[in-house]
Amino acid sequence: MISALCELRFRSFFYLPAFLLFCGISTLSSNAQQFTGRFILGMNGSQIDGDGMGGYYKAGLVFGAGVRIPVSDKVSIGPEIVYSMKGAKASFDQVTKFGYPRIIYRLNYVDMPIVVEYKVNNGLQIEGGFVVSYLLNAKLDNGGNQGFIDVDYLFKKMDYQIFGGLKYQIFDDCWLSGRIIYSVVSTNGIGLSNPNFGLVGVRTQGGFFNNYLQFTLSYRLFGGTTVKD
Asked: Domain tally for the chain?
């Protein structure tokens, strides 16, 4: 029963944004020059603030799609839907120099960013916005002999983040983007008064905050010009 409810919640989270996205595309289809559809591919460098480790050592794949709609000569806005691999990983120094176990968190999310872009000049844009994320699964390798184990209970299903970054148009239909993204509320699923089990060093108490750098290439699939082009 619980698994069915979780599955229903995920489907609602994923399909509603997709429905709104494609409704927006259909509504604007009579004037295709006013928006663009884009394919997104890239990677995250992630850490979890509050886990006792530091550094963006956990690499993860990012891919999905998005839409941009211009609202003025300098500003555009639009949603994205991406699969995003996050987590945390003990650094080489932590493992070898300090004798920490090889801790690795693997967190897989579906993210829905709402992006606002501002044109600085021909090619360069500043971007920022808000991200709603749904946790698909969480796994932990604590350096023992068990390998990766499920630790979904350690994390909340929903995460909310803000981000800022820069985007540069490197070709007519291709953009390079860099963002720093941070959780605005704790994703700790076991409560702030409970220890974060399985962590490096002492068993810390408090919140988990996804903190990651994201680098992506986006390619125009269809549509006309936006605020730069």
From this structure: 1
